[in-house]
Design brief:
Layout: E1 2-4, H1 10-13, E2 24-26, H2 29-32, H3 53-56, E3 60-67, E4 77-78, E5 81-89, E6 95-103, E7 107-115, E8 126-134, E9 145-154, E10 159-166, E11 173-180, H4 190-196, E12 205-207
Parallel strand pairs: 4-12
Antiparallel strand pairs: 1-2, 3-5, 3-11, 3-12, 5-6, 6-7, 7-8, 8-9, 9-10, 10-11
Family: Belongs to the calycin superfamily. Triabin family.
Keywords: Hemostasis impairing toxin, Secreted, Signal, Toxin
Signal peptide: 1-18
Length: 214
């Protein structure tokens, strides 16, 4: 297995070890591509129907809270991490998301995620993003790996609930995310969505680092 510095969502999967120097094992690409595919072991959750990629992938989404059922935490709040996605639909119809993670003390981690437009042809909010570690300017710093995302629900303008699955183990490592267009704002529509999934809001870790909007 090869290793990377802090990988996508590791910071929010395991906040206590969220530091750039942390090393995590990642399945080799050849193993990611073997059958059964690791991502096929991810939970098959309901997704947003008639999904509008143009409305969703614009401007900024802030990660308000996260929950990893495989690595439960006793924390209810974390003031050391800020995470946001800046996204756009490219001229060729593909989507580019730029992931920014700010950790204390003032260390950054960046990812670029490319989603092929063909992923949206079935009209549902379920897709695989080809993801790679990059620097602030978008220069590659590591190999590409897939991340499976399910947009469980969203109103496009205020909130979203996502589930992401990363091939960090033979069974995949998963995390639920609550997103908002504004930092620190938890929409009242989110909790009923979690209840339908038999999830509890109090199990989520609140991301509350000051200065996230900067």
């Amino acid at each position: 297995m090869y290793t990377f510095r802090t990988l996508i969502f590791v910071g929010i999967i395991s906040l206590s070890t969220c530091r750039p120097e942390t090393q995590f094992s990642m399945l080799p690409q050849e193993q990611q591509q073997t059958e059964p595919n690791v991502l096929l072991k991810c939970p098959d959750l309901p997704s947003k129907q008639q999904f509008n990629a143009t409305a969703y992938f614009r401007d900024v989404w802030y990660v308000i809270s996260s929950f990893n059922p495989q690595m439960r935490s006793n924390k209810s709040e974390d003031k050391t991490v800020c995470i946001k996605f800046t996204s756009q639909v490219l001229e060729n119809g593909n989507v580019r998301e730029f992931y920014t993670q700010l950790n204390d003390p003032l260390s950054y981690f960046f990812l670029e995620m490319i989603i092929n437009s063909n992923e949206f042809q079935n009209g549902t909010g379920k897709f695989i993003a080809q993801t790679r570690p990059v620097d602030k300017e978008g220069n590659t710093e590591g190999p590409i790996y897939p991340v499976r995302t399910t947009i469980i629900d969203t109103d496009y303008s205020n909130y979203a609930v996502e589930h992401k699955c990363v091939p960090l183990s033979e069974d995949g490592l998963c995390v639920y995310l609550i997103l908002s267009r504004k930092p620190y704002v938890l929409d009242t529509n989110v909790e009923p969505i979690l209840n339908k999934l038999e999830l509890k809001l109090q199990d989520f870790i609140l991301m509350n680092k000051p200065g996230c909007a900067e």
